[in-house]
Amino acid sequence: MANINVKAVIFDMDGVLIDSEPAWQTAEIAVLNRLGLKLTFEDVESTTGYRIDQVVDYWHQRFPWTNYNNAETASHIIAAVAEHIRLNGEPMAGVIDTLKDCRQKGLKVGLATSSPSLIIEAVLTKLGISEYFDAICSAEHLALGKPHPEVYLNCAKKLAVDAVNCLAIEDSFNGLIAARAANMQTIAIPAPQVAQQTKWIIGHHQISHLSAVAPILSAYLQENTKHTQ
Asked: Which residues are catalytic?
């Protein structure tokens, strides 16, 4: 275990706190294919972690369509995802216990997501977890979303914790790149269908579910104690 004094845990949202990635993918396929594209789930999986306007721009650059309106297309996708969350949103296994464990260990807790405020509000309300977060940051209005590290750096600043003392939890490769670029410790929880891909080696830890976070945090804190005695 690296000698890193972890003082805060920063969570990604989609795919980490809530199983919303399928909703995003379904909405993206439905809206974009109505515009004449022929995207598959494998296609849209490649943009997981991107901000939604970046997703729309990404596909327009590859398969241009007429009457391009990024904001309108993104809005249709966001509305579909928000509705799905309000009706069917479920927390990922271990979310509440992990958030409670962070609190019990005296760690600050942040949220750094590419999702817009409408989605953030829908998720936090549906899951009833707003109280656990000391800082909530979205890349919605930033010049660049993930894999750019700005949303993570902003969250660390809002938590008043140096980025090097933060541990980020991500399910997407683009998010993992962002957290690494912010010089944070990282835990990757990739979806089962992509978990065996070698690219995840760039994370400091790879786990299959949130319940495995607690022992990792304990190990960091024990290591911190050794070096302060």
From this structure: 12, 14
